[in-house]
Design goal:
Methylamine Dehydrogenase, Chain H, four-stranded antiparallel beta sheet, mainly beta, single chain, 1024 residues, 2 helices, Neuraminidase
Amino acid sequence: MKTKFQFLTLIATIFYLSINIEKVSAQWVSSGPDGGYVKCMTKSGNNIYAATGFFWLSSPGFYKSEDNGGSWTSVSSSSLPVDIRAIANFGNSLFLGTGSGIYRSDDNGLTWIEKNNGFPHGDKWINHLAISGNTIFAAGTNEGILRSTDNGEHWTVVNSGLTDTYLYSLTASETAVFAGTGDQMLGVFRSMDNGNSWQQVKNGMSYYDNGIWLTAYAPMITSLAFIGSDLYAGTDESQGIWKTSDNGESWKFTSMETMNYQNFTAISGNGSVVLAGSRDGGGVIKSVDGGTSWSVANNGIDNYGGVTSFLIHGNSFLTGTKGGIYKSENNGNSWSWAGRGILAHNAVYPGFAQIGSTLFFGSQTGGVYRSPDEGNTWLNTNNGLPINEWNLSQLYSNKSALFVWDRVSLDSGNTWEMASIYSPGSTQNGYSGPRWLEHNGFWFTLMFNENTGAYRSSDQGQNWSAVNNGIQDPESAMFFIESLNEMLFLGTSDGLYFSGNNGDFWTKGIFPNLNYWALNGATLTSTGSSEICGLRGGGGIRGIYRTTDQGANWVQVSEFLVHKFIKNGNVLLAAGTNTELVNGELVEIPRIFMSADDGLNWTNISGSIPNVSTISLTGDGINLFISSYEQNNHAIYCSPDNGTSWVNITEGISENSFVSSFFIVNEKIFAATNGNSVWQRNLGDFAPPLQPDQISGIETPCIGSTVHYSVANTEGVNYSWQVPQDWTILSGNGTNSITVYAGNATGIVLVIPSNGFGNGPSQYKLVNPVEAMEVSVVITEDQNNVCEGSFMTFSTFSTNGGTQPTFNWFVNGEAAGDNTPEFVYIPSNGDEILLLFTSSETCTVQNQVESNSITTVVNSIPEVEWLTFEPDSLCINWAPVLLSGASPEGGFYSGDGVSNSIFDPLASGTGSHLITYTYTDTNNCSGVSTKLFIVNSCLGIQEINTEIMVYPNPASEKLNVLLNDGKFILKIELLNQVGSIVFSKENLNVIGQYSIPVSNFPTGIYTLRVSSSNKTFTKSIILH
């Protein structure tokens, strides 16, 4: 009874654990927005390849388009190098120039192999690649030109004659290679012998300085490109675009218009147009007259601030910019977006903001993006922002406004204005925060330049007044103004002030160990009963400080250097650095500290997470989230228990993605990356796993057998199995499938799913082991020793076959018959019949089993001959004759008119009669032979019976049959001399005469049979 009670208790517990669980997704998914910094492009066949990444500051990306830029897919590779600077296609290989040398891919970007054999010692950065014939040239490393003639396997420095080895550009034709210099103002160098020697070719070039052309100097050459036979050179420092039409022998300045652009980074063109791209806000310009005049060509490019590259593919131009890829199909007259699928934005910090239900994302090179639907769609909101001239560094918001640079938007990014219209200052030193603080219906700000101090507005920025009452020196109010509950806090160079009356009066708190810069970068938070201040190391001062009297008195509670505070449920967390002894030296280690007692005590909860990204720390009230940075091994971690354990949750996010910040909106968490845009997951992912599906496996296994049980697998889930007490798990515990030895005990097979977030509800299966049964089968035959051509039937008698056994019949080792318990066939002598029988019972000693075998005995049919007999044509009025001549003797004769081996013509009647001789041997097998007898009327073949008339007889064309006395003709048959029916008509129901056409029958004697309702007439007929 006790056992039963425990079992029922377990079942009840399992049921309780199975309810109220929601289904969640499994990994990070890309959220957008499309675009980002495109560094370089190339093409191979019909494919276009693009490398992304904002130099070494962001994660690299590699993308492929198979539809001329219509869409792009990421070519994910763990071997993709960082800091990609140049790309080239050569034969079947792709090459990347990077900050760590040259990499080659022979599988379209899936794997990359470093190819630096022959590189000089020191730096290995490669900024430029060019192809000339069968040779690859690379420029970088401060060592000039490197050359490879074996597909990048070996490299050689080829600098003979190259007097400036710091190169800014590189291009090649089939016969020449050109390199652009800059630091020494030497212009362009050319090699006509595959790089063996170089000559300076700057004839005609000069440097423009304040209205004077300095002919002794050449400008810095930042881009080179052949367009037809013309070579164009773009420059830095607003030195314009130059051109040579004689392979560099002489250069001409194209146009003063090109001096309006600081730096030209890319040049391309065809027979109709020359395109040039600039880096510092100018975008694309074009010339349709060989460079004589130029015009702006940015129509359709909404982010043209940094043009990095051009690519011609078919009839299209593609240009890569700091915001993505654009395409023109009309020689640059207009452009359209061609960056769908490229996810390469480099997030700023803070990377996210939210106003109402709208989410905002800040991209370093793409500007501000807005999503009204939790990351499903994004729209850039850069109208009024200098996105083409500047790169974004921060994105801030308060309850009513967005802030970037010196601009503000009060309508969710639709329009932007100068923030100074609404606020004369900022809430943070250096204008690094929102331009005003909203507190109790007032706006507050700090002015740093003139009329320094704290200011307040009661009319949403229309008017401001100083609120410095109590501050010893208003000019010291230079670090921050912050709101915690009903209190305001002001960080100054001479102390931390607080105000409980909206700034009407400020009181300086007692704060230990302060100096002038101590509060610079300080962070504040509140638990409700205490306020916490974290110092960032300003003025060399660090630590966590706590007050329980709203800022009047502060006490240091930790030496931890604080970058960021967050609250997560009932605990406080601080991210920053801790001074620790490593290899005998004190070093700053990124850590996460936690306080569970209102900020009084703090403990390290970072565990073994390497290189914690402190500013990324985020919590959802239950879980903590943090990223780590380690080259080529960035990761994301989640803790469900306030740091007691950490789970790696990086799965799904793009390779090499470093997450700089997280943001939580409703039930989603968003991750802003450096170079791979935004990713998202459901918060429900970070919970114990769901209850598994039903367990697959046998409910009634055989005692002592090996059986398998399994559930559907969910990646990242561990499965812990339990079996009845005398069962043994042989393998698979921890996975979704186990192999067990089944004992005698009845009970349950139980599985408990778990992951880093705890145990999920279990699943179970009732099992009842049974003893194994012995299966047997016997087959029998209905007869044996049969005659050739006879059927034999085989039947089965089985034990423990179950309800649906399987029958496999075999004849002489070959499969025969159907899956039935009975087998019928015509055997040959000596056939061996066998059955393989499979029981449908699950617990058997042996399955399948083989039946007994039966060997068939089949006797041949005796050979019988009846060659001659005379006479075989008789008259009806002749005497009976004794039949003879058949062999072997001992048989009997049968047929019409035959009795005791005597044939009576009168008894048989006129016509043809097939007489049979049958002989039966000692095996009771019979053989037969036949002979045709013909009985004639011998009256000249004329009618003697008035009941039936047949005429004419003999006949040649038509034979007429007539029954007298109104009888119905029901059936007519005509038989030849061997008894075969050559004509037959049934169901005639004809009264009187019926005609038979006989012209097509061979001549001879035939037998006519005519049937009426009560009699059959037989006549001999002659056809001629």
